[in-house]
Specification:
The protein is of the alpha/beta class. It contains 3 helices and 9 strands. The longest helix has 18 residues. Bound molecules: inosinic acid and magnesium ion.
Length: 172
């Protein structure tokens, strides 16, 4: 039987996301900023982050093949849904739920750099530094967490648990 234990409460998340919104505002006094969320995990974080910002933001999403139904990365990354617009000459912040091995974000940074944005920054709610395989420079990190499998606030295990308000450790 699987069990859930709260690691980061909804209240802690709220406080930190407000701070991250202010940090993004400080770095981007003039809008619009393209917030590019990685589906599906980042959608809840992106919705709150966008509303924590005062700088005008435009919302975009990309789809990427990642973990599938398991808990370990396949190591293979593929874009399954691209941006709907050109971001050339615009400020872009890629918004991710969790940075783990770094495979996903290092690939996406490479893809987006080819689109010639004015600036390209990365915001991730969670960072598991212990598991890094590829270096990724993060501009806005919400929480550093230990090497545990977490769900909630957008994060899933086989598509379940995304709508939990807290980030929880899932154990079986
Ligand atoms: P990376 O490419 O290994 O950095 O993995 C990033 C992606 O793996 C995230 O967008 C998540 O979809 C997934 N992932 C990594 N760790 C977890 C976790 O603890 N819970 C749920 N999904 C995770
Ligand atoms: Mg994801």
């Amino acid at each position: 039987m699987s069990s859930l234990r709260v690691l980061i409460s909804a209240e802690q998340i709220h406080t930190r996301v407000q701070e991250m919104g202010a940090e993004i505002d400080r770095d981007h006094p003039h809008g619009p900023v393209y917030l590019v969320g990685i589906l599906k995990g980042a959608c809840i974080f992106l919705a709150d982050l966008a509303r924590a910002m005062k700088t005008p933001a435009r919302l975009e999403f990309v789809g990427i093949s990642s973990y599938g139904k398991g808990k370990s990365s396949s190591g293979e990354v593929r874009l399954t849904k691209d941006l709907d617009v050109s971001v050339e000459g615009f400020d872009v912040v890629v918004v991710e739920d969790i940075l783990d091995s770094g495979v996903t974000l290092s690939y996406l940074v490479q893809v987006f750099q080819q689109r010639r944005p004015k600036s390209l920054r990365i915001a991730t709610l969670l960072d598991k530094p212990d598991r890094r395989q590829r270096p990724v420079k993060v501009d806005y990190a919400g929480f550093h967490i230990p090497d545990e499998f977490v769900v909630g606030y957008g994060l899933d295990y086989a598509e379940d648990y995304r709508n939990l308000p807290d980030v929880c450790i899932l154990t079986e």
